[in-house]
Specification:
There is one protein chain. The strands form three sheets. This protein has a three-stranded antiparallel sheet with strand order 3-4-7. A two-stranded parallel ribbon has the order 1-2. It has a two-stranded antiparallel sheet with strand order 5-6. The C terminus is likely disordered. The chain has about 425 residues and is mainly alpha-helical. The longest helix is centred in the N-terminal third of the chain and has 22 residues. It has three domains: about 40 residues, no CATH class; about 120 residues, DNA polymerase, domain 1 (Orthogonal Bundle); about 200 residues, Intergrase catalytic core (hpI Integrase, Chain A, Orthogonal Bundle), CATH 1.10.443.10. The relative contact order is 0.08. It has 17 helices and seven strands. β5 and β6 form a beta hairpin.
């Protein structure tokens, strides 16, 4: 039907209707599609039927060849697991915010079912949800962000026939940033008593970190890696992927230009995804000493292995010279922490701790932010600054001293506790 050409354009529909009536009145054959487009100048304005969301999402992600591999995998996972199954059959121009909200309601219903099955006393029920993951609020926000990005491009595309990004109007509870909590003596005592972990992101005190590193010395192939993360706050992939070519011990510097990214179990090497992530860190004297000793040990192992040595060129390697798998590093970290009798944190918790120690030591937040690879100092201060017990006590005494009119305790200047 010629009128189908202008299904979404009232003005063009009228033009085509007039053209059809004129042909009928003059007893002429109806014009074909191309002639109709030419006669009413519809080459750009006329749209075919808008695609379904599933079709648009495929076109959208296929049209982004420059996406980082990790970002592409994340987008593809959101599309395959959630967006396409729940919303994919809806035509793009008919998608509404209520549809998006219904998707998240269905995800939450699935979460409830998974939790109920896990708590069942019947093993046949528990096995039904084996391997299924509860989708948390932060994951929901990432799914929503993928849809918003796709629909933003749809709004700019004349073929999509949409003018509003409905994902921006879908209601979803806010997801506050998870701020780290320190394992204070009271929290450790409660954990030992009943296993309570008071927060999702936990950080060791400097003393606990020192205990861990001392215990990690028994694991000669891992201690230098954990030392660098604990002191400089590298991300796991940055530490695992650090090459000797970018590490200058004479200058006490290391260039962070590569990282090992893990997708499911597969890994690949890429650059940090943000410009701020590509940075140069400064190494302290103790870390330089640790890395010099490690390099000597690694060279001796390479000579002993001979042709069996895998020349990866990486700073941190396994006994055969090959690079570490990121998950293996995390597993060893948890193993060493348990063996040392320490309260649990994740490997990423060492990064939180490094930032916290630097800020507590009075390091300028701009320096800490640059060393961590953050784009803004606000993010660093708001997310990574934790209050160690001794720092908080010093600040409290300084405040009380001011109220008494006494001199503030030495070393208290400039320390601002953050809740």
């Amino acid at each position: 039907m010629l009128l189908d050409l202008a299904r979404h354009e009232e003005e063009v529909r009228v033009q085509i209707a007039d053209l059809i009536q004129d042909s009928l009145r003059k007893r002429r054959p109806l014009p074909d599609l191309e002639e109709t487009r030419a006669r009413v100048a519809m080459a750009v304005d006329v749209r075919t039927e808008p695609p379904t969301l599933a079709a648009w999402l495929k076109e959208w992600i296929d049209g982004k060849p420059d996406l980082a591999a990790g970002t592409r995998a994340s987008y593809a996972g959101h599309i395959r697991k959630y967006l396409a199954p729940h919303l994919g059959m809806i035509r793009l121009d008919r998608l509404q915010a209520r549809h998006v909200e219904a998707m998240f309601a269905a995800i939450e219903e699935a979460n409830t079912r998974i939790l109920e099955c896990r708590e069942s006393e019947d093993p046949r029920v528990r096995v039904l949800v084996r391997g299924q993951q509860v989708i948390g609020l932060s994951s929901k926000h990432r799914i929503s962000a993928t849809l918003r990005s796709a629909l933003s491009d749809a709004v700019r595309s004349p073929e999509a026939a949409v003018s509003v990004n409905v994902a921006s109007h879908a209601r979803l509870p806010s997801c506050p940033r998870k701020r780290p909590l320190v394992w204070t003596p009271g929290r450790v005592a409660q954990w030992k008593k009943d296993g309570t972990i008071p927060g999702e992101v936990m950080v060791w005190t400097p003393e606990q970190t020192r205990t861990f590193l001392e215990h990690a010395r028994r694991y000669v192939w891992l201690h230098p890696l954990f030392h660098l993360i604990a002191l400089k706050g590298l991300r796991r992939g940055e530490a695992v992927g650090l090459p000797w070519a970018d590490t200058r011990l004479t200058d006490a510097e290391a260039d962070i230009r590569t990282q090992v990214v893990q997708l499911s179990w597969e890994t690949f090497t890429s650059t940090p995804k943000s410009e701020a992530g590509q940075r140069t860190i400064t190494l302290d004297a103790d870390t330089v000493k640790v890395l010099r000793g490690w390099k000597k040990f690694q060279n001796q192992a390479r000579l002993k292995a001979g042709p069996e040595w895998a020349d990866s060129g990486l700073v941190f390697t396994r006994q055969d010279g090959s690079g570490w798998h990121p998950s293996h590093v995390s597993d060893w970290f948890a193993h060493i922490a348990r063996a040392a009798g320490l309260p649990p944190i994740t490997l990423h918790g060492l990064r939180h701790g490094a930032a916290s120690m630097a800020l507590a030591a009075g390091t300028d937040v701009k320096v800490v932010s640059a060393e961590l690879g953050h784009s803004t100092t606000h993010f660093t201060q708001d997310t990574y600054q934790s209050v160690f017990l001794d720092v908080a006590k010093t600040a409290a005494e300084a405040t009380a001293a001011l109220l008494r009119g006494a001199a503030a305790p030495a070393g208290s200047g400039g320390v601002v506790p953050v809740r």
